[in-house]
Amino acid sequence: MEQKRHFSINLLEWYDKHKRDLPWRRHRNPYYIWVSEIMLQQTRVDTVIPFFNRFIERFPTVEDLADAPEQDVLKCWEGLGYYSRARNLQAAAKQVKELHGGIVPDDKASVFALKGVGPYTAGAILSIAFNKPEPAVDGNVMRVLSRYFLIEEDIMKGSTRAFMESLVVELIPDGRASDFNQALMELGALVCTPKSPHCLTCPVMEHCSARQEGKEEQLPIKTKAKPPRPEYRVVALVEGRGEHSGRVLIRQRPQEGLLARMWELPHLQTPAARSGRLPDEPAMDILAGALLEEGIAARPIAHLTDAEHTFSHIHWNLQVYRCREEDLPQAAELKAMYAAGDSGEPSVQTEYRWIDEQDMQHYAFPNVFLKILQNYFKHSSY
Ligand code: SF4
């Protein structure tokens, strides 16, 4: 009991003196807090700050976000990754506009019902914005609690999380839920760090059980997630000719699934998808065939660069080839055939566009393609 009391008192005293000045802390605006918490998932504070400022400037209210074209929201999110967060945030903003008159609700059931809002984010919104004594337990918080209270249970287990949530509810001092949850997060981010925690400057060191037993580096216990599955892909950077001169070809991803509706360079998984990088010649042959099948009149001419991107479950290894637009009559025939579809009805067509460097601002790209395109335009001789 004493250990718990010390924790809450010492932590809050420290937070009151040392809390960082973060843009979403300057006002207790629930919309700002909500946006910041979504951005902070899997992303560090320093990275989030400029994105947050730009996002709020572009979409200052829930209604502005709800009413914006999706491509504008994705464009503003470009570079932050995990784009389903942005799509869910906008879907939830529409819910707030339609069901709550544009005002972020402060009751648990309504907050939990918002798209993309799980137990952690709901707890963060309710506590930070509305000072409700709700737990907001993420990896940072579980690390601090595991160490301070010497909890040697696997933090990947639902039962451990549930236990920690009830522990946080006990620890929150009356009337200070907002500060307490932020203090806990702040301690995890600044002091009780994953590697080499700064115990000597820690405000709760005196009663920290892991520190007393010399186990701070061994906690928390966490089963390892499966490593992402590698995929090898060949990518076409098609340079236009004639009316497309100075432009490259991009396409839109499907309506659903990974990176839905974002824009990218045409690419496909190679048959050696699991076994490693292909030599250039077979890679270019595969790409040539795939471009033709898509009705794209272009030929691969040289290797341009390699790139990588990790999603939570897949690791892309991309081999990028410069391709030149050419007159290939077979491509035009195939395109016409696809457009007609089997039954003579128009089929669902992939959207392609020819863009130059200036046009890039109108399209949202996953980071890996954004970098390839930026580098290409920077170094190309157009
Ligand atoms: S004393 Fe060390 S291990 Fe314990 S809470 Fe502080 S930083 Fe973490």
Automatic annotation (TrEMBL):
Alphabetical keyword list: 4Fe-4S, DNA damage, DNA repair, Glycosidase, Hydrolase, Iron, Iron-sulfur, Metal-binding
Report the EC code(s) recorded for this entry. 3.2.2.31
Protein name according to UniProt: Adenine DNA glycosylase
Q: Family per UniProt?
A: Belongs to the Nth/MutY family.
SUPFAM superfamilies named among the record's database cross-references: DNA-glycosylase, Nudix
Give start and end of each HhH-GPD domain.
Answer: 39-190
Name its species. Paenibacillus cineris
Question: Is this entry keyworded DNA repair?
Answer: yes
Q: Which reaction does it catalyse?
A: Hydrolyzes free adenine bases from 7,8-dihydro-8-oxoguanine:adenine mismatched double-stranded DNA, leaving an apurinic site
Q: How is the cofactor bound?
A: Binds 1 [4Fe-4S] cluster.
Q: Which CDD domains match?
A: ENDO3c, NUDIX_DNA_Glycosylase_C-MutY
Q: Which purpose does this protein serve, as stated in its record?
A: Adenine glycosylase active on G-A mispairs.
Give the required cofactors: [4Fe-4S] cluster
Q: What class of enzyme is it?
A: hydrolase
InterPro entries attached to this UniProt entry: A/G_AdeGlyc_MutY, DNA_glycosylase, Endonuclease3_FeS-loop_motif, HhH-GPD_domain, HhH_base_excis_C, MIG/MutY, MutY_C, NUDIX_hydrolase-like_dom_sf
